[in-house]
Structure formats: C-alpha cells, structure tokens
Amino acid sequence: MCELFAMSARHPTTVSLSLEEFSRHGGLSGPHKDGWGIAWYEEGDIRLVKEKDPAASSACVRFIETNPFSSSLVVSHIRRATLGSVASRNCQPFVRELGGVWHCFAHNGDLKGIATDRRFRAEGFLPVGETDSEQAFCALMDALRPLWSSAGVPPLAERRRVVAGFAATLRELGPANFLYCDGDALFAHADRRYQSDGSIKPPGLWRLARHCPAGGEVAAQGLTISSRDGEQQVCLLASVPLTAEGWTALGEGEIVVARQGRIE
Q1: Separation of alpha carbons 80 and 194, rounded Å
Q2: CA 34 to chain centre
Q3: Is 138 a catalytic residue?
Q4: Among the options 2, 104, 138, 181, which is catalytic?
Q5: pLDDT tens, 96-114?
C-alpha cells in the first residue's frame, strides 16, 4: 500500500528525512516498492524529485537524506503500483501550474472507473501517465481553475469548499486519501485504507501538531525538523503514525487544512 507524508510549518525549516524509514514503517519491503517522490516549496517555486526505482537502492534518496533542505511545505509519496506501469510518469507527487503558482497532489487508494466517469473528465489539464491518481488531480485542477482565474490567492473558504465537494464525489469510487497543496495551504482528505489485518476501513490518515522553541528540534521516525527562525509550529500528516506519541486519526471524509503549521 502506498504511503503519504506531508508537512506544514510556520517558518521555512531544515528538514532531514529518510524515505526508506517511512517505507519500512509503513510495512513495505524489498522489491515491493514501485517508485517514490517528494516535492517541497522553496521561494515561490517547487522542487520535485521522483523515480520509478525502489527507495532502498536510490542514489537520489541517499542524496536527499544526507543533504537536508529548507521548506515550510513538503509532500511525499512512496508507491506500490496498482494501476499504471512502474514508470517515472506514474510516480507521485504530481504537479501542475495554475494561477501562476505550483499545485501539488499525492493520492493513496483505488478509484475504480475514474477514467470513464464523466464527472472526472479533465479538459484544461490532462494526465501524462496512466494512474487513477493523476486523473483525479487533473479533475481537481479543472474544478479549481475558476477560482484561480484572477490575480491573487483565492479566499481559503472558497478553496476548501471546492476541495471538499470534489473529495465527497471522489469517495464514491473507492478509497480516496489525498494530499493537495497550492503553495499557501495544505489540504489533507482522509478516507479508508488497507489496514494491517487486510481490511479496508478508516483511518486513512493521521495528523500530529508539534511546537518547538527557536533552536529546538522536532523528531519523528525517519524525520528531523530543526527550528532556526524563531518559535516553530509544525503540522505533520502521514498514512500511519511515525512516533508513539499522540497522533490523531482522521475520520472517514474528514478534511484538514494547514497553513504555516497551524490547523485552520
């Protein structure tokens, strides 16, 4: 099963993470890794790195792990292929430009019939690969396009309304856990997920809010966040808890919106 991870922080912060550690924590092993990807925002731009190769044998992963980057918004995905070949074009996160900013999306689940469902037929945005996840992202971008047609970032309430309506429809097709970021806010939609006992049920995502003073550090399994620019607030979202502390399970259909490390 694919693994999702995202971070929203109050200040751009130094992030050191181990994708391999996340993969092990989520129960993936050896050859059952069909690609990975990570995107982080930096000075109005986005850096995207993804590969079809297992994270365990990736030189790119080793480079990211040993060269911490600075960001306030991070989205990551580790893939176990269910639809679409094992290829870079089918690895997540996916990114698109809309309204002069980069939008980023990662999904975990199985959206049966989305390719032929007229409700998700994208016009202005087309998939590059063959996954149901990218088809969903393109449809979401089409739904958001009217909001981003004028200058500036649309009101958060309007963006939340579109994302919530889209998510409710998407759940009709199957498990639809996703992370979506527009450079200003991070949206997380939780649904059902394959659990360790083989059942499909909530929770599909978990969240953790952390705080640390200037010069402090937030540490989780496979992740270290160093605070340098003052008091730091961090919101972490993941498919499974990364530490033994108090992660909150998100309910089926629940949407969490984080800005600058705080839940809105």
Answers
A1: 12
A2: 17
A3: no
A4: 2
A5: 999 999 999 999 988 999 9
